[in-house]
Amino acid sequence: MTVNPATDSPVIEAALTFLVPSGEKPKVLMPADDADRVERTGTYQAVTVGIHDARHLSVPPTIDREGFALVRCPTATTDFFDPACVQRDYYPEIISLLRRCTGAKEVHIFDHTVRVEDATPPRRRGLRQPVAYVHNDYTERSAQQRVRDFFPPRKFARLQAGRMSFVNVWRSIGTSAERFPLAAADGRSVPLADYVAVDMVYADRTGEIYHNTYSAGQRWFYFADMRPGEAMLLKCFDSATDGRTRYTAHTGFANPRAAPGTPPRRSIEVRTILSFAG
Fold first, then answer.
1. What does the pLDDT look like over 189-219, one tens digit per residue?
2. In the Cβ-directed half-sphere of 41, how many Cα atoms lie within 13 Å?
3. Rounded to 5 degrees, what are φ and ψ at 125?
4. CB-CB contact of 249 with 185 (8 Å)
């Protein structure tokens, strides 16, 4: 580990997986029976980048400036592997958190995903693996489609008339996330040309996501040693075009800093739509 003199932030060197641009639109083929057994078209490459520990930045990152932030998020939820428990206990905590942290008038949760890196129970219950390539969850088109699908037409029209954003709330639910933590790029450092639309092909529909190519100006960060009372906010779309970050490239990565015997990562991400309409 080194320290970047410009930020006094510890930096680790780690490989992230990026899409290689080809001029053709890639596809991700999603099987109905196993979400981890996906097939991808296109070419991907591992690029070693410096990833800063954002805990040590002199000015903490914010969700509108960099596109991500670390927040205090105590929880009374007792079982993150029980969907009913998560919806009953955790969802209200997330709604309250996002209203407080973002000023959103409305917070709508449309789903959550539990990811388990290891192959032992509860992994055998069909939970998903961490994502290991650089991406952003929504494109301009698919974000609007998600809102259209989620809300009745009158509600959709009202929300579309104002500012909306999609924010993921990510936290570790295991002993440690250090073996395979989440990295995010400063949204100001990733030009729009680095976002490539990719078809997500399901049995009954085709969605769209961004995969990211690499460029030398990208600045990468993570929060080391995520604690039980912390969560990471990650903006995946913002309808505002006033200069704030609209997308945030992110990925899980194998952390060379993790000590031998560090347990596999277990995490939950809650996906939300925020409305700022008065």
1. 999 999 999 998 888 888 999 999 999 999 9
2. 12
3. -85, 10
4. yes
Q: What SS3 state is found at 38?
A: coil
Checking 95-98 for CB contacts under 8 A at 24+ apart, the result is 95/272, 97/71, 97/73, 97/169, 97/231, 98/167, 98/169, 98/233, 98/272, 98/274
Question: pTM of the full predicted structure?
Answer: 0.93
Burial of 63 (0-12, 13-18, 19+ CB in 10 A): buried
Tokens 């969907």 found at: 83
User: Rounded to whole angstroms, what are the CA distances from 62 to 50, 71, 85, 187, 227?
Assistant: 20, 10, 30, 11, 19
Let me know: does 137 contact 236? Beta carbons within 8 Å: yes
Query: How many Å apart are CA 172 and CA 177, to the nearest integer?
Result: 6
- Give the pLDDT confidence of 152-172 residue by residue, as tens digits: 999 899 888 899 999 999 999
Sequence-ordered list of residues with C-beta below 8 angstroms from that of 37, at least 6 positions apart, any chain: 31
Q: Rounded distance, CA 92 to CA 276, Å?
A: 18
For residue 221 the two structure tokens come to 């960060």
Distance CA 111, CA 261 (A): 32
Q: What are the structure tokens assigned to 262, written together? A: 């560090």
Report the 10 Å Cβ neighbour count for 112. 19
SS3 141: helix
**Structure tokens that stand for 201 in this block:** 């092909």
Whether the ω angle into residue 121 lies within 30 degrees of 0, i.e. cis, is no
Rounded-to-10 torsion of CA 251, 255, 257, 262 = 120
**Exposure string (b/e) for 217-228, b if CB count within 10 Å is 16 or more?**
ebbbbbbbebee
- CA dist list (Å): 106 to 95, 153, 197, 255: 8, 17, 28, 36
Number of residues assigned to the chain: 278
